[in-house]
Design brief:
CATH architecture of the largest domain: Orthogonal Bundle
Radius of gyration: 21 Å
Shape: flat
Largest sheet: none
Number of strands: 0
CATH topology of the largest domain: Tetracycline Repressor, domain 2
Strand content: under 5%
Structural class: mainly alpha
Number of domains: 2
Helix content: 55-70%
Number of helices: 13
């Protein structure tokens, strides 16, 4: 971990301040523009002072992934395994949605911090207790993890596309729906017919539908 020094400039900082400032910058400008220098400027200090608390940008990303994991509550272990995964999936999604580019933060760092490891541990334990074979647990957990991450990535892309167009997300969806409905029926009959369903503004229902399909498949495998 980064070094510490008895100095008023360094003591005025701590990791929690640095992490929150980094989150604020990411939510404003995106992960690509995040740098130790930008964080230092936002804190009205020097980049060198940050290095007494955080060694480098990669450690900062690790701490951000840990912060995301801290915001995830775990379900009651007495519930059925699929109910636990539905709850955990929703918790995971909401934690990711709280920070812009959170999916990149999670995928570009190795899980090695306590709360992030605890997230994996809980998913593994749910699957083990459900009766999944030990050799299948890591792959099954990965499927669950990847579904949540990919869904949130798509949600965030939709938000950014709408922002570029100067629209709210609902407005962008409505615009897309109108585009589908205006297509020539002779060439795209299915797209026109299903326009209302193809462009949905209810991301919560879409997420739970996909998660339920995944869990139904896993349950079928569990029964074999």
């Amino acid at each position: 971990m980064a070094r510490k020094k008895q100095n008023s400039e360094y003591e005025s900082l701590d990791q929690s301040k640095i992490i929150q400032t980094a989150i604020d910058l990411i939510n404003k400008d995106g992960l690509k523009k995040l740098s130790m220098r930008n964080v230092a400027n936002a804190l009205n200090t020097s980049a060198a002072s940050l290095y007494w608390h955080i060694e480098n940008k990669y450690e900062l990303l690790q701490l951000l992934s840990e912060q995301i994991s801290k915001n995830i509550s775990f379900p009651d272990s007495s519930k059925e395994w699929y109910e636990q995964l539905i709850e955990l999936g929703n918790e995971f999604r909401q934690a990711l949605l709280s920070i812009r580019d959170s999916v990149e933060i999670m995928t570009e760092t190795v899980p090695m911090t306590p709360d992030r490891l605890q997230l994996i541990e809980n998913i593994y334990r749910i699957l083990i207790n459900a009766g999944f074979r030990s050799e299948d647990v890591p792959a099954t957990a990965s499927l669950f993890n990847n579904y949540v991450l990919s869904f949130v990535r798509d949600e965030m892309i939709q938000v950014q596309i709408a922002k570029i167009q100067g629209l709210e997300v609902n407005e962008a969806f409505e615009q897309a729906r109108n585009m589908f409905q205006s297509l020539p029926v002779s060439k795209y009959p299915s797209l026109v017919e299903l326009a209302d369903y193809s462009v949905s503004i209810n991301s919560d229902k879409q997420f739970e539908f996909g998660l339920q399909v995944l869990l139904d498949g896993l349950n079928k495998r569990l029964q074999q």
